[in-house]
Amino acid sequence: MRLRPSVVLCLLFCLQAHAQAPDTVRYTLLIASLPSGIEKHWVAPDGSTYYYFEFNDRGRGPAITERIVLGAGAVPALIETTGHDYYKNAVAEHFALSNGRASWQNSAERGDKVVAVPSFYVSMDAALEELAVLARALLAAPGGTLSLLPDGEARIARVGDLVVHRGNEPRTVVQYAITGLDLTPTRIWLDSNGEFFALGGSFFMAIREGWDAAQPELLQAQQAADSVRQVALARALARRPAGPLVFRHADLFDAETGGIRARTTVVVTGNRITAVGPDARVAVPSGAELVDATGKTLLPGLWDMHVHTSDDDGLLHLAAGVTSVRDMANDFDELQRRRHRWDDGSLLGPRVLMAGFLDGPGPFRGPTKVLVSTDSEARAWIDRYAATGYIQTKVYSSINPALVPGIVEESHRLGLRVSGHIPNGMTAEQAVRAGFDEIQHANFWFLNFWGDSVGDTRTPVRFTAVAERGALLDLGSQRVRAFIQLLQERHTTLDPTVGVFEQLFVARKGVVQPGYDSVAVRLPAQVRRSLLAGGLPVPDGMDQRYRDSFQAMLKFLKLLYDAGIPIEAGTDAWPLGFAYDREIELYAQAGIPPAAVLQIATINAARITHRDSVLGSVTPGKLADLIIVDGHPAERISDIRRVRLVVKDGVVYDPAALYRAVGVRP
Q: Which domain holds residue 11?
């Protein structure tokens, strides 16, 4: 096997760096509160600081060595980074500032710029502690503000102190909020000496080695600070009409039939739809607030059937017209807290239905504390999920296939659907025969036909094998037809998340992710860079094969749709609402008629989750979840990107104001 020069450089650089100096400070990287990696830094004899960062997330994860030399104002004058990124793409990044000119090169960018004021280069691929270097530079800068490179500006604010303990040893740490890097503040903890202490949330956190037990206290303090901001946003951006809300002259999308009912009036009273009919036949109640929907389409609120929520996601869901979501795996306690806050309006967000996550222990375990090895452990968690209002059990890749029959039996006994990844050692056909009601992710359709020949599907091979072989699968074969017939017989539903695979198979370094051209210009500068990150490493000579395999996935999707297999619109991706728009655009690209795509996104989702008696269509008596679109998405699905008004549970939201609140141009 021949190594690319960049990989050889990485190996030599990393070995040299490790050999030159001992570790000075170490950190533990936690995924779902379980140790999953390390971060460390040390100072070399020449005064430069080295940072090493790696973690394992189901066989994915970066390993990066970064060298930083500081210049005036605690701003880096030199950054050299090597290793590999989350998907194992080689990293070789270089930044230098000399004589007032900055230059940089990484896997996605190459540029230079005259720098007239102190500016901080934010690496495309970096160790976590680069944020601590930025925090110290901001604290040293006038007004706590610095220009960023390649573009943007960052600001820091001190939030508050906290005393944490390791046994009897106390330590004072300080929480800071950095804005300008993301859509919401980035929270970081430094100790009293200004050294990095912790960064992250409940899903992923880096924390000083030996202080893992302090994570809950740090999270509680971060949530308290975030809550102040979130409550203020909810008060400013959510509006409950004083009386009835009436939409006039709308082109109503009838989710039940897939047709358009022109010049329709819809009356909302409180949180319910109370009247729907032709303009000439529906009376406008006295004191009503009128919305002129002439030339616009009125639809039920959209459903994203595959999300993993965080507190700040809800605003972006609403801005895109997504008023209901199904959370497919999350921290048990965090999800309950978040759901209640979205329901009571103290946090902006959609309705949430919950799927309970189960995985098995091992090196490729999913990001969860719910790891089961026995039938009794699995049943106990299913019972807990059912008692807490979950509607579904989600099985993951490291589950022992021998546990699947018991999981299905207990879930169905309690009225929960069963879905998930196909556990390693099983095929999709076997999972469906064992009682799966639903399959997450289109890659498992393809893996069904290759069995053990692809290797361990707990690892990223479940992506790469499909990228390399998907285009070669004969979709007209008897085996494929038999699989589709089985899905028909068992009434299995499918959650394709094809947008994820477009990003993995088709996105390339340095090029805006497919389908996001119109979105990129709306995002803050540093957020916009994330759309240049690319997807899976593409072996030499396989570029077109990867692209063809994605097209094969869309063809398979259309084949399944034509066979009457229920399809669900779910994203499993950021940037949330934008990803949702892209997901349903891809359904239309696959050949599904736009009106049918809108049915998938509304009434079909409500039916699958047994919520169609109250949601999914604009019908008198149902809950008032509605959106106004400036265009005709039943004819041109991409018009769904032009949501102009959102109503969730009778509360009104202006998408433009929601976007502006997080720095996104409407």
A: 5-236
